[in-house]
Amino acid sequence: MVAEALTNVARHSAATSATVHVHGDEASLTLRVSDDGRGGADEASGSALAGIRRRVAAFDGRTELSSPPGGPTTLTVELPCG
After folding, report:
1. Tens digits of per-residue pLDDT, 47-69?
2. d(CA 34, CA 4)
3. 8-state DSSP, 16
4. Is 6 exposed, middle or buried (0-12, 13-18, 19+ CB in 10 A)?
């Protein structure tokens, strides 16, 4: 998920920086990839973001995308542990 999200940042966002945050405990693992790019990411356009959402859902995970026009974009994935 992180590698694919960072690839999207590099290809599509025109961002000058991106950050990856990882947090985990016994119950879940949370991954957050944010960039300072132009925003406007759209899962409905057949993007890799829809693929990430499907793969996360296969593990009973949750995906949240925030990408208003003008940016920034943040993709958050939460996966259950155990």
Report:
1. 789 999 999 999 999 999 999 99
2. 13
3. S
4. middle
